[in-house]
Model the fold of this input.
Amino acid sequence: MTLLTALTFKQLRALKMVCETGSITGAAERLSLTPPAVHNQLKTLANTIGAEVVTRAASGAFTPTPEGAFLLIAIEKSEAAISRALSEIEALRRGVAGQVVLGVVSTGKYFAPGIVARLKRSHPEIEIRLEIGNRNQIIAGLESEWIDVAIMGRPPRQPSVTAYPIGDHPHLLIASPENPLCTKTTASHDDILDQTMILREEGSGTRILAMRFLDRIGEGRPFRQIEMDSNETIKQAVIADLGVALISAHTVIDEMAAGRLVQIRAESLPIYRQWFVLHREELRLSGAMQSVMQAIRNESASILRSDEVARLIGPNA
Done:
C-alpha cells in the first residue's frame, strides 16, 4: 500500500476540523463522532505520514504542525477539485456545456453583473458562477483552485497566473462638492495630506494603492484616516464630506455624472493601472473556460464602460 492510498478523507477531515475548532471535542461535534474516534483518526494519519500533524499552542488549542499545514493546503485543493467535478457532472446532467466560477475583486462588482448577463446571452450553454471578494479573497480562491477565471488589477505573484490586460483602471481622488479642494485647479500634496483619508480595509487592492500613493507624496508625514470595508460606504462618507478617498473610477461613474462626487486634480493623479482577466498558469482550461476568457477579452471596452470613464475623467487628466 502506498502512502497516498493509505490516507483517507476521514483522517483529513478530522485534521481540518481539529485545526478549525482548536480542539478534539469541537471537531467531534462538527463531524458527529466521538472524541476518541477523532483522536484515533489523527493518530492513524500521523503514523501514516511518519510525523505529527497537530500540536498544542500555549493557549491549549490544537494548531497544525508544518507537516499538518501542508496537508491542510492539499485538503482545500482536493475539496475544491471535487466540488468542481460534481458541478461539472451536474451541468452535464442538465445538458449544460460546463460551469465556470468567475472571481471579481469587489471594486469590479459594479460591472461584474453586466459581464455575467453578457455571457449568458452569448453563451447560454455555459453556467457562470460569480464570486466577489477583496483582492486577498480572490487570490485565495485562485490558490485553492475554487475560482477558475478572475478579473482584478495587478496580477498576484503567487499563485503563478496567465494574465491578459483588458483595459485601463484609473484611480481618482474624490471629494464632496462641498470640500474646499474642489475650488482648486490643482491641489498640492500638502492640501491632500491635510484632509482625512478614507481607506478600504486591509487586504484590499485599493487600500494598497492608496497607501503607496500617500507614502510617496507624504514621505512619512502622518495623516488622519478612517477605515471602511466597502466602496459603497466610502462613497457615502465622501458625499457627506467626512474626508476624501482614492478610489477606482469604475466605482464612482454614476455619482460623478450626477455631480454628487467630484474629482480632485493633483500632480500624479489620476493613477492609471490595468484591469486583467487571468487564470492559474497550470490550469488546464476547459472549453467553457476558454469561451469565457475570450468573450471577456473581446468585449472588455464595453464591459468596463471605458469611453464613459474617459469622458468623466476629462482630457487634462
Remarks:
- The chain has three domains: 3-73, 95-167+274-308, 168-272.
- The domain at 95-167+274-308 is CATH 3.40.190.10 (D-Maltodextrin-Binding Protein; domain 2).
- The longest strand covers residues 161-175.
